[in-house]
User: Fold this.
Amino acid sequence: MDLQLQGKVALVLGAGGGLGGAIAEALAREGVRVALAGRRAEPLEARAKVIREAVGTAFPLVWDLAEIEAIERVVGTVETELGGIDILVNNTGGPPPTPVSGQPPSLWMQQFNAMVLSVIALTDRVLPGMRARKFGRILTSASSGVIVPIPNLGLSNALRSSLVGWSKTLAREVAKDGITANVIVPGRIATDRIAFLDLKKAEREGKTVAEVEAESLAAIPAGRYGRPEEYGDLAAFLASPRAGYITGSVLRVDGGLIANV
Assistant:
């Protein structure tokens, strides 16, 4: 299937990680010119090298999303190097595993700025260009915790849920301009983040990582963790003109893990 994305420009946040990197590669395979943003230069450069050698254009940008004042510089750089941004992938890093209660306000504020306010401010910056071109895709990567809260991921459950409400509201506001806004929810996708969470759970419960993984697999009808490229492929489709009538939705990539309807 031709996704009709040749020549589009995307900015993918968290592109040095497993999910963001997979989305960037999937978009690049469809002919999208991709800007890869993230906090650490080394994984960004490595991912950009893979994309350049295999499929297309990649432009790495080192940026900590908590630096909201840098949004104008970042977007301006992408526009200069690649062109106006047609596809924005809001994929932020996860906060530390904690209970939801008893956390200091400073931690809530720090994570809110990095995970929520930065996403909102960045999206507001790119929307005028999308409106002018009558095409735009806003994809926000969340967590299964927005559907079924995950124990000991209190900050993530709360803050990512606020982005679901924001995305749904935004979708109604911009649909007439040819812009869609959707949320993608990963289940247990085989990334470094999931490996880290499995390790922390093993430490808390006095188990081995293998035991924790076995428990997780037993709860997944598909019987395995997802592959990052499976997540990236859905993102590429949602970013395409072919998905123009899908907006305001929350789509799961979970192998059947989330039991809720």
Q: What stands out?
A: Helices lie at 18-29, 41-54, 71-81, 105-133, 154-174, 192-205, 209-219, 228-238.
